[in-house]
Design brief:
Layout: H1 6-18, H2 22-34, H3 39-59, H4 65-82, E1 98-103, H5 111-122, E2 126-129, H6 136-145, E3 150-154, H7 161-174, E4 179-183, H8 189-195, E5 199-201, H9 204-217
Parallel strand pairs: 1-2, 1-3, 3-4, 4-5
Helix pairs in contact: 1-2, 1-3, 2-4, 3-4, 3-5, 5-9, 6-7
């Protein structure tokens, strides 16, 4: 695998997720590190890109749930290898900013949410993960425990967009000043605007940038 360009290594990282080869992903992640590729880039432009294709294949019914789970295991194995090499960055924009993150009620997808959580943490945000299938009451209870700046919500399915709106509406009834960041395959800029969200992330990088902008305005 020697002598490969960064672009070739990133493509291979995406491809190995598709083929759910955990042994190969270990070697490729180490190659990426040895080649000087930023581990953030290896995750976002390599492993994560592969998982995006997996989602498309699932939507077209070319992959079933067993294949998706195997791909997710491969991605997670790669992230486990790369995570210790990520240098956490804390800026004045993210310092002491607490974000609650979760996948909305009715949706058990976690991969995209977990990548966003990882990247927000790397950027210096204090992230509390409520997991998947999260109802509004769970968000409200967590906000009540300690000071929260942003609630980040994700959903992959159009059928659970209503759950996202319900969480935003319910939380705002109790905490009118709470800021919201939304994302996921079924969410668009227009959806975010209609739901009254303060930020939208098309991907993990976009989510971090949106969180920074929200924090700046706090």
């Amino acid at each position: 695998m020697g002598g490969q360009t960064k672009e070739q290594i990133l493509k291979e990282l995406a491809d190995v997720v598709l083929s759910f080869d955990e042994e190969a992903v270990e070697g490729l992640c180490q190659l990426a590190l040895d080649s000087g590729i930023d581990p953030n880039e290896a995750i976002l432009d390599g492993l994560s890109k592969g998982m995006q294709v997996v989602g498309d294949l699932y939507d077209r019914q070319e992959y079933g749930i067993p294949e998706v789970l195997l791909c997710a295991d491969t991605l997670n194995r790669g992230v486990d290898i790369l995570r210790p090499h990520i240098v956490k960055r804390t800026s004045s924009q993210t310092k002491n900013c607490r974000i609650i993150i979760g996948t909305v009620e009715g949706d058990i997808h976690s991969i995209g949410k977990n990548i966003v959580k990882l990247m927000l943490g790397v950027d210096g945000f204090d992230v509390v993960d409520l997991g998947e299938d999260v109802p509004s009451q769970k968000v409200i209870e967590e906000i009540g425990k300690t000071s929260t700046d942003i609630v980040a919500l994700s959903t992959m399915m159009t059928t659970t967009l209503a759950s996202m709106k319900k969480i935003i509406d319910d939380v705002k009834q109790k905490y009118p000043q709470m800021k919201f960041l939304v994302g996921g395959a079924s969410v668009t800029h227009e959806t975010a605007r209609k739901f009254g969200a303060d930020g939208y992330g098309e991907n993990a990088t976009g989510a971090v940038e949106a969180a920074r902008k929200i924090k700046t305005g706090l």
